[in-house]
Predict the 3D structure of the following.
Amino acid sequence: MRRGTCRTAASVAVAAAAVLTALTAMAADGPIAPPAPLPATVIAIKAGRLLDVRTGQYRSDVYITVEQGRITALGASAPAGAHIVDLSSKVVMPGIIDVHVHTGDDLFDHSAATRMRVSAAQSALNGAYKVHQYLMHGVTTLRDAGETNVYYPQFALRDSIAKGLIEGPRMLCAGMLISVSGGHSDDDTTAVDFGLPKRPNIADTVDELRVAVRRDLKYGADWIKLMASGGVSDLYSDFRSQELSEEQMVAAVELAHRAGRRVMAHAEGTAGIRAAVRAGVDSIEHGTMLDEESATMMAAKGIWLVPTLATFQIEPGTAAGMDAVMLRKLRDILQYQQPAFALALKHHLNIAFGDDDEAQRVGPEFAALVKGGMTPLAAVQAATVNGARLLGLESETGAIETGKSADIIAVDADPLADIGAMKQVSFVMAAGRIISQP
Ligand SMILES: [Zn+2]
């Protein structure tokens, strides 16, 4: 044992010396360079079939030229000297935009108590693992839909990706899950004798709501997340009931919009959806009990719906540690999902793609959208051009067009013929970096 310890200590000393030498060299050369600079070479991707997600049309044998992370040309030939990536047997399309992800959630424990057990540090590391999984499933942009941990692990993750410290999709983040006491995101599940101090995501008055929103804005939220109704994955809330008041949500929208940020509302029950829509939020998440009146209001105001269908359709056996009360709510809520989704399609609502779970649910969410009545093209649009519009990134990503970020994936078969093809992503490029290839 002692000899082993000595060897470890010796190798740590050698490694530390090497790091010190490298840092000294970098300091002598000026500022430390980004850890992963973009490849200097010009890359030309040969697409056997290139899907135009705006029209559903295919172009054959197109070369996509990528320089310094951007698409610089689409044409019949590659520039001289370019590094060729041969995807001539594949269907090439823009990277997926998933607008409802919780990066910090524990992968193995979905019980009510998990929220009191996961530190901000662990949450950020859960996220570091999850964002890699999302990349491998073709997700090149994601919106964190808010985190249970109120110390913003998701902002650290987003900023570390932007700095090149770790590899991940482009990230936009909501802040805390702002909730009423006893609501969908009141994570103190101890008995009254043991009650924890009130957490900063709990807002029972308009003023408390303003404080919570200002905290989010101060520390870097791109989106504000409101709990307009109860939900499934908690012990106390009723998903049918409205939670935050309309007055609170009006105040949140006013503050966020004034600061140039947007607002997303978790809303399952009809009353919560109606109040959030009247308050002027930018997106309704889930919308599981959408009715004619709320669908009509959403269509008139251009408010987005992120339906997250598949996460409600999971088999109880796969719901890692969910409490019995959550499983019962999961069974209850499912009856409302399909009629609401049919209404959303009937009213031609703006729909964006969100999985609300983990990377393995991306493929099933595409399948659920199509099973629910969307055309395969509409499902692909929800996850590309529509997601980009919702996030205000339409000039940056969401389509393979000259000038846009090189967010490019390939699948083995035609997703417009069989949406199941979205489960087999065999090539991923995110902002010009090749993440995986056949
Ligand atoms: Zn969610």
Remarks:
- The chain has a mean pLDDT of 91.
